[in-house]
Design goal:
CATH superfamily of the largest domain: Type I PLP-dependent aspartate aminotransferase-like (Major domain)
Strand content: 15-25%
CATH topology of the largest domain: Aspartate Aminotransferase, domain 2
Bound molecules: pyridoxal-5'-phosphate
CATH class of the largest domain: Alpha Beta
Largest sheet: 7 strands, mixed
Low-confidence stretches: none
Number of strands: 15
Protein backbone atom coordinates (compact mmCIF):
# COMPACT_ATOMS: atom_id res chain seq x y z
CA UNK A 1 0.00 0.00 0.00
CA UNK A 2 1.35 3.42 -0.84
CA UNK A 3 2.20 5.43 2.23
CA UNK A 4 -0.01 8.40 3.08
CA UNK A 5 2.15 11.39 3.93
CA UNK A 6 0.60 14.53 5.40
CA UNK A 7 2.31 17.61 3.91
CA UNK A 8 3.01 20.09 6.73
CA UNK A 9 5.62 22.25 5.04
CA UNK A 10 5.04 26.00 4.50
CA UNK A 11 3.59 25.34 1.05
CA UNK A 12 2.31 23.38 -0.70
CA UNK A 13 -0.30 22.91 2.01
CA UNK A 14 -2.95 20.16 2.23
CA UNK A 15 -5.49 20.34 -0.62
CA UNK A 16 -9.07 19.55 0.40
CA UNK A 17 -11.20 17.19 -1.66
CA UNK A 18 -13.47 19.81 -3.24
CA UNK A 19 -10.39 21.64 -4.60
CA UNK A 20 -8.76 18.40 -5.77
CA UNK A 21 -11.92 17.62 -7.72
CA UNK A 22 -11.60 20.87 -9.66
CA UNK A 23 -8.03 19.90 -10.61
CA UNK A 24 -9.34 16.56 -11.90
CA UNK A 25 -12.07 17.99 -14.13
CA UNK A 26 -12.08 17.36 -17.86
CA UNK A 27 -10.31 20.17 -19.70
CA UNK A 28 -12.24 22.91 -21.52
CA UNK A 29 -10.98 25.21 -24.28
CA UNK A 30 -9.84 28.53 -22.84
CA UNK A 31 -12.31 30.23 -25.19
CA UNK A 32 -15.23 28.08 -24.01
CA UNK A 33 -17.87 30.54 -22.74
CA UNK A 34 -18.30 28.44 -19.59
CA UNK A 35 -14.60 28.77 -18.76
CA UNK A 36 -14.47 32.46 -19.72
CA UNK A 37 -17.30 33.09 -17.25
CA UNK A 38 -15.52 31.15 -14.50
CA UNK A 39 -12.23 33.01 -15.06
CA UNK A 40 -13.95 36.41 -15.06
CA UNK A 41 -15.74 35.54 -11.82
CA UNK A 42 -12.46 34.48 -10.19
CA UNK A 43 -10.77 37.75 -11.19
CA UNK A 44 -13.67 39.83 -9.82
CA UNK A 45 -14.16 37.76 -6.65
CA UNK A 46 -10.46 37.97 -5.71
CA UNK A 47 -10.49 41.74 -6.23
CA UNK A 48 -13.56 42.18 -4.01
CA UNK A 49 -12.41 39.77 -1.32
CA UNK A 50 -9.10 41.55 -0.78
CA UNK A 51 -10.59 45.02 -1.42
CA UNK A 52 -8.54 46.01 -4.45
CA UNK A 53 -10.12 48.70 -6.63
CA UNK A 54 -7.26 48.38 -9.15
CA UNK A 55 -6.74 45.11 -11.05
CA UNK A 56 -6.35 41.50 -9.90
CA UNK A 57 -4.22 39.17 -12.03
CA UNK A 58 -4.56 35.41 -11.37
CA UNK A 59 -2.00 33.91 -13.79
CA UNK A 60 -0.01 30.75 -14.38
CA UNK A 61 3.27 30.99 -12.48
CA UNK A 62 4.66 30.84 -8.96
CA UNK A 63 5.28 33.33 -6.18
CA UNK A 64 8.75 34.09 -7.51
CA UNK A 65 7.33 35.11 -10.89
CA UNK A 66 4.94 37.40 -9.02
CA UNK A 67 7.95 39.02 -7.30
CA UNK A 68 9.40 39.72 -10.72
CA UNK A 69 6.05 40.98 -12.02
CA UNK A 70 5.67 43.36 -9.08
CA UNK A 71 9.08 44.97 -9.53
CA UNK A 72 8.99 45.05 -13.34
CA UNK A 73 5.78 47.07 -13.62
CA UNK A 74 6.65 49.95 -11.28
CA UNK A 75 10.37 50.60 -11.77
CA UNK A 76 12.75 51.46 -14.56
CA UNK A 77 16.49 50.80 -14.78
CA UNK A 78 18.46 53.09 -12.45
CA UNK A 79 15.58 53.61 -9.96
CA UNK A 80 16.16 53.24 -6.22
CA UNK A 81 14.40 50.38 -4.46
CA UNK A 82 14.25 49.78 -0.71
CA UNK A 83 14.12 46.15 0.37
CA UNK A 84 12.86 45.48 3.86
CA UNK A 85 14.03 41.98 4.69
CA UNK A 86 13.15 39.77 7.63
CA UNK A 87 14.87 36.72 6.14
CA UNK A 88 15.57 34.59 3.06
CA UNK A 89 12.54 35.61 0.98
CA UNK A 90 13.07 39.30 1.67
CA UNK A 91 16.64 38.85 0.46
CA UNK A 92 15.41 37.17 -2.74
CA UNK A 93 14.29 40.62 -3.94
CA UNK A 94 17.92 41.82 -3.83
CA UNK A 95 18.96 39.53 -6.67
CA UNK A 96 15.77 40.19 -8.65
CA UNK A 97 16.29 43.97 -8.40
CA UNK A 98 20.04 43.95 -9.06
CA UNK A 99 19.54 41.94 -12.26
CA UNK A 100 17.17 44.65 -13.43
CA UNK A 101 19.78 47.36 -12.92
CA UNK A 102 18.01 48.90 -9.94
CA UNK A 103 19.89 50.57 -7.09
CA UNK A 104 19.15 48.50 -4.04
CA UNK A 105 19.22 49.49 -0.38
CA UNK A 106 18.46 46.80 2.16
CA UNK A 107 17.07 47.12 5.67
CA UNK A 108 17.60 43.83 7.43
CA UNK A 109 16.75 42.45 10.85
CA UNK A 110 18.33 39.80 13.02
CA UNK A 111 16.54 36.52 12.22
CA UNK A 112 13.49 36.19 14.45
CA UNK A 113 12.88 39.95 14.64
CA UNK A 114 11.26 42.46 12.29
CA UNK A 115 12.65 45.69 10.83
CA UNK A 116 11.06 48.54 12.83
CA UNK A 117 8.60 51.06 11.47
CA UNK A 118 10.92 53.88 12.54
CA UNK A 119 13.88 52.43 10.62
CA UNK A 120 11.76 52.22 7.46
CA UNK A 121 10.42 55.75 7.86
CA UNK A 122 13.94 57.13 8.41
CA UNK A 123 15.30 55.35 5.33
CA UNK A 124 12.44 56.51 3.10
CA UNK A 125 13.08 60.09 4.21
CA UNK A 126 16.75 59.93 3.14
CA UNK A 127 16.21 59.61 -0.60
CA UNK A 128 13.63 59.03 -3.29
CA UNK A 129 12.66 55.37 -3.71
CA UNK A 130 10.54 54.24 -6.66
CA UNK A 131 9.41 51.19 -4.70
CA UNK A 132 9.76 49.38 -1.41
CA UNK A 133 9.28 45.66 -0.82
CA UNK A 134 8.08 44.13 2.44
CA UNK A 135 7.57 40.41 3.07
CA UNK A 136 4.33 40.02 5.04
CA UNK A 137 5.50 36.71 6.53
CA UNK A 138 9.05 35.61 5.80
CA UNK A 139 8.92 31.85 5.41
CA UNK A 140 12.50 31.38 6.63
CA UNK A 141 11.94 33.02 10.02
CA UNK A 142 8.13 33.02 10.47
CA UNK A 143 8.41 36.73 11.23
CA UNK A 144 5.31 38.85 10.57
CA UNK A 145 5.83 42.41 9.29
CA UNK A 146 3.43 45.13 10.53
CA UNK A 147 1.95 45.73 7.06
CA UNK A 148 -1.05 47.81 8.20
CA UNK A 149 1.17 50.17 10.22
CA UNK A 150 3.73 50.44 7.42
CA UNK A 151 0.89 51.23 4.99
CA UNK A 152 -0.29 54.07 7.21
CA UNK A 153 3.22 55.50 7.41
CA UNK A 154 3.60 55.24 3.61
CA UNK A 155 1.09 58.09 3.22
CA UNK A 156 4.10 60.32 4.02
CA UNK A 157 6.01 58.81 1.08
CA UNK A 158 3.58 58.87 -1.85
CA UNK A 159 6.33 58.58 -4.52
CA UNK A 160 7.24 55.08 -3.27
CA UNK A 161 5.21 52.07 -4.43
CA UNK A 162 4.44 49.78 -1.48
CA UNK A 163 4.96 46.16 -2.61
CA UNK A 164 3.92 43.37 -0.24
CA UNK A 165 5.03 39.76 -0.67
CA UNK A 166 2.02 37.99 0.80
CA UNK A 167 2.98 34.52 -0.40
CA UNK A 168 3.10 33.00 3.11
CA UNK A 169 0.40 35.28 4.53
CA UNK A 170 -2.44 36.29 2.18
CA UNK A 171 -5.70 34.46 3.01
CA UNK A 172 -4.43 33.68 6.52
CA UNK A 173 -3.04 36.94 7.95
CA UNK A 174 -5.71 39.61 7.39
CA UNK A 175 -5.01 41.73 4.31
CA UNK A 176 -6.94 44.66 2.80
CA UNK A 177 -5.22 46.10 -0.29
CA UNK A 178 -6.90 49.53 -0.46
CA UNK A 179 -7.41 49.82 3.29
CA UNK A 180 -3.75 49.14 4.07
CA UNK A 181 -2.42 51.41 1.32
CA UNK A 182 -0.79 48.49 -0.53
CA UNK A 183 0.17 49.17 -4.16
CA UNK A 184 1.03 45.61 -5.11
CA UNK A 185 0.19 42.45 -3.19
CA UNK A 186 0.90 38.95 -4.47
CA UNK A 187 0.72 35.34 -3.42
CA UNK A 188 0.91 31.80 -4.82
CA UNK A 189 -1.87 29.23 -5.01
CA UNK A 190 -0.04 26.63 -2.91
CA UNK A 191 0.22 28.51 0.39
CA UNK A 192 -2.75 29.82 2.41
CA UNK A 193 -5.20 29.30 -0.46
CA UNK A 194 -4.63 25.55 -0.14
CA UNK A 195 -4.45 24.86 -3.88
CA UNK A 196 -1.79 22.92 -5.83
CA UNK A 197 1.27 24.97 -6.94
CA UNK A 198 1.17 26.71 -10.32
CA UNK A 199 -0.79 29.93 -10.03
CA UNK A 200 0.18 33.41 -8.87
CA UNK A 201 -2.31 36.06 -7.80
CA UNK A 202 -1.21 39.69 -7.99
CA UNK A 203 -3.32 42.66 -6.92
CA UNK A 204 -2.32 46.08 -8.30
CA UNK A 205 -3.69 49.39 -7.01
CA UNK A 206 -4.86 52.19 -9.31
CA UNK A 207 -1.59 53.94 -8.42
CA UNK A 208 0.49 50.93 -9.51
CA UNK A 209 -1.43 50.70 -12.80
CA UNK A 210 -0.80 54.40 -13.41
CA UNK A 211 2.92 53.98 -12.64
CA UNK A 212 3.09 51.13 -15.17
CA UNK A 213 1.43 53.33 -17.82
CA UNK A 214 3.98 56.08 -17.18
CA UNK A 215 6.90 53.73 -17.96
CA UNK A 216 6.17 53.21 -21.67
CA UNK A 217 7.42 49.86 -23.01
CA UNK A 218 9.12 47.66 -20.42
CA UNK A 219 11.65 44.89 -21.25
CA UNK A 220 9.52 42.12 -19.71
CA UNK A 221 6.85 40.43 -21.81
CA UNK A 222 4.86 37.76 -19.93
CA UNK A 223 4.58 39.75 -16.68
CA UNK A 224 3.66 43.10 -18.29
CA UNK A 225 0.41 44.51 -16.79
CA UNK A 226 -0.38 46.11 -20.15
CA UNK A 227 -0.36 42.72 -21.91
CA UNK A 228 -2.76 41.22 -19.37
CA UNK A 229 -5.14 44.11 -18.73
CA UNK A 230 -7.33 43.43 -21.81
CA UNK A 231 -7.50 39.73 -20.87
CA UNK A 232 -8.43 40.45 -17.24
CA UNK A 233 -11.20 42.70 -18.60
CA UNK A 234 -12.40 40.06 -21.05
CA UNK A 235 -10.87 36.57 -20.63
CA UNK A 236 -12.31 35.46 -23.98
CA UNK A 237 -9.26 37.22 -25.48
CA UNK A 238 -5.93 35.42 -25.78
CA UNK A 239 -2.47 36.48 -24.65
CA UNK A 240 -1.04 33.31 -23.08
CA UNK A 241 -2.89 30.13 -22.17
CA UNK A 242 -4.57 30.28 -18.76
CA UNK A 243 -4.05 27.38 -16.33
CA UNK A 244 -7.63 26.18 -16.81
CA UNK A 245 -7.90 23.62 -14.01
CA UNK A 246 -5.99 25.84 -11.59
CA UNK A 247 -8.47 28.62 -12.30
CA UNK A 248 -11.27 26.27 -11.26
CA UNK A 249 -9.33 25.13 -8.20
CA UNK A 250 -8.65 28.74 -7.20
CA UNK A 251 -12.34 29.52 -7.70
CA UNK A 252 -13.29 26.79 -5.24
CA UNK A 253 -10.57 27.95 -2.79
CA UNK A 254 -11.82 31.54 -3.04
CA UNK A 255 -15.38 30.37 -2.34
CA UNK A 256 -14.14 28.51 0.76
CA UNK A 257 -12.26 31.61 1.97
CA UNK A 258 -15.22 33.94 1.28
CA UNK A 259 -17.56 31.65 3.15
CA UNK A 260 -15.27 31.57 6.18
CA UNK A 261 -14.56 35.32 5.94
CA UNK A 262 -11.09 36.92 5.97
CA UNK A 263 -11.37 38.15 9.57
CA UNK A 264 -12.61 34.77 10.87
CA UNK A 265 -9.90 33.00 8.89
CA UNK A 266 -7.26 35.27 10.42
CA UNK A 267 -8.65 34.61 13.92
CA UNK A 268 -8.66 30.85 13.32
CA UNK A 269 -5.03 30.92 12.20
CA UNK A 270 -4.08 33.03 15.20
CA UNK A 271 -5.68 30.78 17.80
CA UNK A 272 -4.30 27.69 16.09
CA UNK A 273 -0.75 29.09 15.95
CA UNK A 274 -0.79 30.04 19.62
CA UNK A 275 -1.95 26.56 20.61
CA UNK A 276 0.74 24.98 18.40
CA UNK A 277 3.44 27.12 20.01
CA UNK A 278 2.29 26.04 23.51
CA UNK A 279 2.32 22.41 22.42
CA UNK A 280 5.83 22.56 20.98
CA UNK A 281 7.20 24.45 23.97
CA UNK A 282 5.71 21.78 26.27
CA UNK A 283 8.04 19.19 24.71
CA UNK A 284 11.21 21.29 24.68
CA UNK A 285 11.12 23.23 21.40
CA UNK A 286 11.53 26.99 21.28
CA UNK A 287 10.00 29.24 18.62
CA UNK A 288 12.42 31.40 16.62
CA UNK A 289 10.22 34.45 15.98
CA UNK A 290 9.82 36.84 18.91
CA UNK A 291 6.24 36.88 20.28
CA UNK A 292 5.65 40.49 19.15
CA UNK A 293 6.31 39.63 15.47
CA UNK A 294 5.25 36.00 15.27
CA UNK A 295 3.38 34.77 12.19
CA UNK A 296 0.32 32.55 12.41
CA UNK A 297 1.01 30.63 9.20
CA UNK A 298 4.11 28.63 10.06
CA UNK A 299 6.61 28.07 12.86
CA UNK A 300 10.37 27.73 12.95
CA UNK A 301 10.84 25.25 15.80
CA UNK A 302 14.30 25.13 17.40
CA UNK A 303 15.20 21.62 18.57
CA UNK A 304 15.75 20.69 22.20
CA UNK A 305 19.44 19.96 22.91
CA UNK A 306 20.84 16.87 21.27
CA UNK A 307 18.17 16.27 18.61
CA UNK A 308 19.64 15.57 15.18
CA UNK A 309 17.75 17.36 12.38
CA UNK A 310 18.21 14.74 9.67
CA UNK A 311 17.26 11.94 12.03
CA UNK A 312 14.21 13.81 13.33
CA UNK A 313 12.86 14.68 9.89
CA UNK A 314 13.47 11.14 8.61
CA UNK A 315 11.53 9.84 11.64
CA UNK A 316 8.72 12.29 10.88
CA UNK A 317 8.51 11.01 7.32
CA UNK A 318 8.39 7.42 8.62
CA UNK A 319 5.55 8.52 10.89
CA UNK A 320 3.66 9.90 7.90
CA UNK A 321 4.22 13.64 8.20
CA UNK A 322 6.61 15.77 6.13
CA UNK A 323 8.02 18.97 7.64
CA UNK A 324 10.63 21.34 6.19
CA UNK A 325 14.23 21.97 7.18
CA UNK A 326 15.26 25.39 8.44
CA UNK A 327 17.24 27.86 6.34
CA UNK A 328 20.38 29.97 6.79
CA UNK A 329 22.06 29.86 10.19
CA UNK A 330 19.16 27.75 11.52
CA UNK A 331 19.69 24.88 9.07
CA UNK A 332 20.21 21.76 11.19
CA UNK A 333 19.06 23.54 14.35
CA UNK A 334 15.34 23.81 13.69
CA UNK A 335 12.52 22.49 11.52
CA UNK A 336 9.70 24.44 9.90
CA UNK A 337 6.07 23.47 10.38
CA UNK A 338 3.47 24.96 8.06
CA UNK A 339 0.02 25.55 9.55
CA UNK A 340 -1.87 27.64 7.03
CA UNK A 341 -4.81 27.09 4.75
CA UNK A 342 -7.66 24.62 4.93
CA UNK A 343 -6.52 22.54 7.88
CA UNK A 344 -8.29 21.72 11.14
CA UNK A 345 -7.63 20.36 14.64
CA UNK A 346 -7.42 16.80 13.34
CA UNK A 347 -4.58 17.75 11.01
CA UNK A 348 -2.59 19.41 13.80
CA UNK A 349 -3.18 16.57 16.27
CA UNK A 350 -1.87 14.16 13.64
CA UNK A 351 1.23 16.32 13.09
CA UNK A 352 1.93 16.88 16.79
CA UNK A 353 1.57 13.22 17.63
CA UNK A 354 4.12 12.41 14.91
CA UNK A 355 6.44 15.04 16.45
CA UNK A 356 6.12 13.24 19.81
CA UNK A 357 6.90 9.83 18.30
CA UNK A 358 9.83 11.25 16.32
CA UNK A 359 11.33 12.91 19.40
CA UNK A 360 11.11 9.55 21.18
CA UNK A 361 12.88 7.95 18.20
CA UNK A 362 15.63 10.58 18.64
CA UNK A 363 16.08 9.53 22.26
CA UNK A 364 14.13 12.28 24.02
CA UNK A 365 12.43 11.35 27.25
CA UNK A 366 8.94 12.82 26.84
CA UNK A 367 5.50 11.57 27.82
CA UNK A 368 3.15 10.71 24.97
CA UNK A 369 0.30 13.16 24.76
CA UNK A 370 2.20 16.11 26.23
CA UNK A 371 2.16 18.22 23.06
CA UNK A 372 -1.20 16.92 21.86
CA UNK A 373 -2.72 17.57 25.30
CA UNK A 374 -1.33 21.10 25.51
CA UNK A 375 -2.69 21.81 22.02
CA UNK A 376 -6.14 20.43 22.79
CA UNK A 377 -6.37 22.45 26.00
CA UNK A 378 -5.33 25.68 24.31
CA UNK A 379 -7.38 25.33 21.13
CA UNK A 380 -10.58 24.49 22.99
CA UNK A 381 -10.25 27.19 25.64
C1 LIG B 1 7.11 30.44 -1.07
C2 LIG B 1 7.45 31.88 -1.03
C3 LIG B 1 7.91 32.57 -2.16
C4 LIG B 1 8.23 31.89 -3.46
O1 LIG B 1 7.13 31.32 -4.03
P1 LIG B 1 7.31 30.17 -5.15
O2 LIG B 1 5.87 29.80 -5.42
O3 LIG B 1 8.08 29.08 -4.48
O4 LIG B 1 7.99 30.74 -6.30
C5 LIG B 1 8.13 33.93 -2.06
N1 LIG B 1 7.92 34.57 -0.91
C6 LIG B 1 7.49 33.95 0.20
C7 LIG B 1 7.27 34.73 1.44
C8 LIG B 1 7.25 32.58 0.17
O5 LIG B 1 6.82 31.95 1.26
Amino acid sequence: MEKNVLVMIPGPTPVVKSIQEQMGREIQAFGDPRFVKDYKELIDDLGKLFNCSGQTFPLAGTGTLAMEMAISNVTRRGDNVLIVSNGFFGDRFIDICERKGLNVDVLGAEWGTAVSLEAIDRKLSEKKYAAMTVTHVDTSTAVLAPVAEIGKMMKKHPETMFIVDGVAATAAEFTDVDGMGIDILFTGSQKAFGVCPGMLILWASERALARRKSLGTIPEYYVDFEKWLPIMENPAKYFATPAVNLVWAMKEATAIISEEGLKARDARHHKNAQAIHKALEAIGFSILAKPECRADTLSVCIYPNGVDDAKFRAAMFEEGVVVAGALGAYAGKAFRLGHMGNIDQNTIVQALSAVERSLKACGCDIRYGTAVGAYMEAINE
